[in-house]
Amino acid sequence: MAETKQEKYEESMLYKRRHSAAHIMAQAVLEKFPTAKIAIGPAIEDGYYYDFDLPRPLTPEDLDGIEKRMREIIKSGVTFERKVLSADDAKKIFHDQPYKIELIEGLEKGTLDENGNPVEEKPVISTYSQGIFTDLCRGPHVDSSKDINPEAVKLMSVAGAYWRGDEKRPMLQRIYGTVWNSPKELEDYLWRLEEAKKRDHRKLGKELGLFHFSDDVGPGLPLFTPKGEMLRYLMEKYVRDLQTKYGYEHVWTGHLVKEDLYKKSGHYDNYKDSMFPPMVDENIVFRMKPMNCPSHMSLFKEMGLHSYRELPMRFAEFATLYRYEKTGELSGLTRVRSLTQDDCHVFCTPEQIGDEFTLALKLIREVLDTYHFTDYRVRLSLRGKTGKFVKDDEKWNLAETALRSSMDAAGLEYFEAEGEAAFYGPKADFIARDVLGREWQLSTIQVDFIQPGRLGLSYIGEDGLEHTPVLLHRAVTGSTERFLGVLIEHYAGAFPVWLSPIQAVLIPIADRHLEYAAEVAAKLKEKGIRVNVDERSERMNAKIRDAQNQKIPYMLVVGDKEMENGQVALRMRSGENPGAIDLETFIQQALSDIEKKN
RNA sequence: GCCACCAUAGCUCAGUUGGCAGAGCGACCGCUUCGUAAGUGGUAGGUCCAGGGUUCGACCCCCUGUGGUGGCUCCA
Q1: Predicted structure pTM score
Q2: Do residues A583 and A477 share a domain?
């Protein structure tokens, strides 16, 4: 296979255009607010941003003005000139720009680059100037602003952003903008955003009548309609059956747990802020269950003394958990306060890690495949040098090695992310790309050498001695709520037949066909097909339109001809119109589509 | 939690220098019985998110709160 040479984004003309546009925007903002303090302004995926400390909040009108001024600057043809200089000279230039001074000090120490990211080598300090505006910058940039098409530039939004991403530091105003190589590309990008909006699961969830939120119930607590619950049921049943087939066993561990257990497991220290407040009953303090691991481990313990012959033991559970997410973090179904995890904990010996990982991997691959997620990558999250990570080098090394070799053995490509691990061990996350190219973290497998010891778990080994089992945490779809949100957007609401809450709708042409429609519906129901009869006194066209908008896979029109011949006139939601077929033929086709999970 | 913006009928939205609240779709009740994406007439439907303030008068202006959106931070 021929190797295609792919240009790195950071070296591309598009990147230069975006980065240069960020500088031009900063110039326009400084012209408007001469006392503004400028922070950082990198190019990012699909555009760029720049952070400012401004005397007042920006309005949408400000953005229009800044965008207009940017076009003028671009058209005027300013050139970008690079200059290398010493830290002291740089400090002189930016003497009234405290954020730049802080960045220069980072560069001086050789630990951070001009965007505040850690670097290996001590960087050269350089500035880029266009016209009267000079910025601390490594580049690269376009030679002249004439390399940017003024009609391919657009400011997108204003947002708050903490300086250096640290919530204890000042909140700056971030302007997001986008630049493309041509106005056509910009138009395509805006079109993609529109398409994404049409697929937004919050919008589709309402239109298709799948779920709601209620102020009376509370934020982040979704309520599912009969259709929405059907989806949940089907999704969970599918994974449950598959897990059973793969040798996982299901357990149930309730919703409340004594707070003390989380102190023992170590979760309390790390996550008490994201647990719902305690429920106090005389001398006992309870918490809503925010994770299953301690419960599953307690169950393992209560089931008595275990022999190595019993391992691996695989406890799976569809458990509804409650997490006290900050209100600003809640978002539709993808970030909620009550979530149903398809969780599993595998208790095994160190030697079994590889096999268990492979098993989990096989299961995950099959599930992602069924849901038409074919494009995904794996992130291996490792501990960082500082932070929440439990201190035990030997065990971390053992865990990291086990995970790496398991993934290598599985022939799986992965990339590593330092500092992203859970506090108890490294993890492998599956990040899938949906049809719009957006990435979602779905499945996860985590090795845990820490918690079983903390909770005093043990098994008797071949040597007759007590050993601490290794714990594997594993989730396939993550949570039912989040996965459903992603699925709605992935399918744009047109679920495959096996998942569709309503699989077929019968459309009688006139009232005299109602009886036949009901007969057909009864026969379909008998075969387990989820079917509705549209009995309204509407024209067939209106019924078809409504069924299309509800994205129902099969529309079955019945009139005089069909009634006479025991047929149904099939129309697919794709617009495909096979016409009149025998009822039995349709049933066979539908059952086959459902069976194949197409 | 922080920054900005938003909240009007079931849904999508309009509205007024501060002077009796509007449309389309949907719902309901009729008429229509129709062959592959909206037949037709009528009726009902509102604490203009909540609480306070300014005012002769507040859906509109101010404050506080609640909820949502876009980000930031966080995500066992």
Answers
A1: 0.91
A2: no
